Amino acid sequence: MIGVFDSGVGGLTVVKEIFRYLPEYQIIYFGDTARLPYGTKGEAFVKRYSAKITEYLIKRGAKIIVIACHTSSSWASESLKKQFSIPVFEMITSAGLEASLKTKNNKIGIIGTPGTIKSRSFEKKLLKINPDLKIYPKSCPLFVPLVEEGWVSNRIVLETAKEYLSGVKSKRIDTLILACTHYPLLEGTVKKIMGPKVSIINPAKTVAKEIRDFLENNPKTADNVKKGANHQFFFSDEPYNFKKISHLCFNRKMKIKVKDPF
User: Fold this and answer.
1) Which of 117, 168, 177, 180 is catalytic?
2) Domain boundaries, the chain
3) What's the rounded mean pLDDT across residues 89-117?
4) What is the pLDDT of residue 40?
5) Are strands 199-201 and 27-31 parallel, antiparallel or unpaired?
6) Which class is 2-90+205-258 in CATH?
7) Residue by residue, what is the 3-state secondary structure of the chain?
8) What pLDDT score was predicted for residue 237?
9) Alpha-carbon dihedral 187, 193, 195, 200, rounded to 10 degrees
10) Quick one: pLDDT at residue 247?
11) Would 2-90+205-258 and 93-202 be classified into the same CATH topology?
């Protein structure tokens, strides 16, 4: 199985893209809804629970781990790669590479949770690829609760997005990274504000493509990853508005199990 985890339901946007690019593989998902949001937590907390969740998914049969949380990707990916022997994928590397290839004027915006923006992980990755890039980060903490309310395109969302994005837009960026797993559900609203000349990078898509390419180039690992449609979705507490988010992502109901193993 491919193990995917997030602090809540936002990682379902990553599962959506894995279904799209790797439809034959079975998914096991864990959302740590008992301790969300990770975006406002400290580094030590995020590392500790990211390791606990990874161990839990491996015990349940995961052969690949996908950190479908930008805060965990920022603060815990390197330690998880050292601690565990199976492949670990995060949300930053492939998205940063795509953004650096897309930009024409070397001006890239990043929107994410306070934790992701504070970590500067995307900035560091991008500047390592191309030191000439100009990076404009912006924390957008209200986007997550709006999405979890099922609000992705109404007037309140549009006005909130205008307020958050006006400063980034004024920098005349031509590429914008959606550095939170909830944000792809707001992509239509973001595009409306930023305009057609700004390329929107959805890390959920880039990581799904990265996993696909990895499995194509590593057939032995691919053979060990369980296939089938018996997907499993676990949460450490009752996920708020799960039905709304799963409908937005999959257009159908998903069966879940609520259990806090920690």
Assistant:
1) 180
2) 2-90+205-258, 93-202
3) 95
4) 82
5) unpaired
6) alpha beta
7) CEEEEECCCCCHHHHHHHHHHCCCECEEEEECCCCCCHHHCCHHHHHHHHHHHHHHHHHCCCCEEEECCHHHHHHHHHHHHHHCCCCEECCCHHHHHHHHHHCCCCEEEEEECHHHHHHCHHHHHHHHHCCCCEEEEEECCCHHHHHHCCCCCCHHHHHHHHHHHHHHHHCCCCEEEEECCCHHHHHHHHHHHHCCCCEEECHHHHHHHHHHHHHHHCHHHHHHCCECCCCEEEECCCCCCHHHHHHHHHCCCCCCEECCCC
8) 96
9) -30
10) 86
11) yes
Catalytic site residue from 14, 64, 69, 92: 69
Q: What would the mean pLDDT of 213-234 be, rounded to a whole number?
A: 94
Q: Does pLDDT of 146 surpass 90?
A: yes
What pLDDT is stored for residue 6 in this prediction? Answer: 96
In angstroms, rounded to a whole number, what is the distance separating the alpha carbons of residues 90 and 76?
A: 9
Mean pLDDT of the chain: 94
Is 140 an annotated catalytic residue? no
State the pLDDT at residue 242.
Answer: 87
The verdict on whether 249 is a catalytic residue reads no
Among 148-152, 153-157, 211-215, the minimum mean pLDDT is found in: 148-152
Share of the chain above pLDDT 90, in %: 85
Structure token pair of residue 43 = 């580094």
Residue 67: per-residue pLDDT? 97
Phi, psi dihedral angles at 125 (to 5 degrees)? -65, -45
CATH of domain 93-202: 3.40.50.1860
**pLDDT exceeds cutoff 90 at 243:** no
pTM to 2 decimal places: 0.92
Q: Contact 33/235 with Cβ under 8 angstroms?
A: yes
Q: What is the rounded CA–CA span in Å between residue 104 and residue 175?
A: 9
Judge whether 126 and 133 are in contact, CB under 8 Å: yes
